[in-house]
Write the structure tokens for this entry.
Amino acid sequence: MRIKFLRTLILMFLVSACHLKEEVYINEDGSGNVTAESLRDESIYMKYLGEDYFKEQEFVDSTYVVKDVIAKEQETFDVFLEEYQALLRKYENVKVHIKKDSYAKEYRTTISTPFKNINDAGDLSHVTDYVDDLQNNYAINPSRKRTIFAYNFDGTTFRRTFKVLNQERYDEYKETIELYKPILHIGNCSYTANYHFPRKIKSVSHTDAILSEDRKSLTLKLPMLDCLEKPELAFLEVVLED
């Protein structure tokens, strides 16, 4: 039973997040946009599934905004606890595009949201789970989440921080990643962050970050496996010039 569960878990990872790209734009007034895109790596998925790879028959091309889902599921939403209604409302302007095309071999999920203050943008990685809970009338329980990341920007210093929410589930997840290391190495999976700021960058905490010519943007690319084992590696602090 455990082996089956682990295989399912790693399969879910391969389907949804072999390559993760995060794009953040911050304007002078603090407003902006954040986009997170996950892309399946077909080469690693094909090697993992073997002949079953060519038996896939799936096509989904769906786009929704969270506030529209709330309106559609209003009766269910109304019986949720106020704190969970507030949680969903926090993400109401988030737009989700899911494409699963087994014929073109394209599996991609794009989640984006505008913000007036990036401190309130929230962790987009949990949005689709919360929407699924609403649509299926499941109890929303944020404490089930293993981890959470957050943005903070005070006008001069930008931070991307990471926090473990459920240590037990996080430790189990790390054990799974350790077990399937050889498979995850196959596709050279990656995490890429592109951050754009209104002024020149004075300093950045991560030594692997590459600055643009005008020093207003940076790119940070890390192996996905490293981020899964130690998510704190994606912690970033950027100080802007006055």
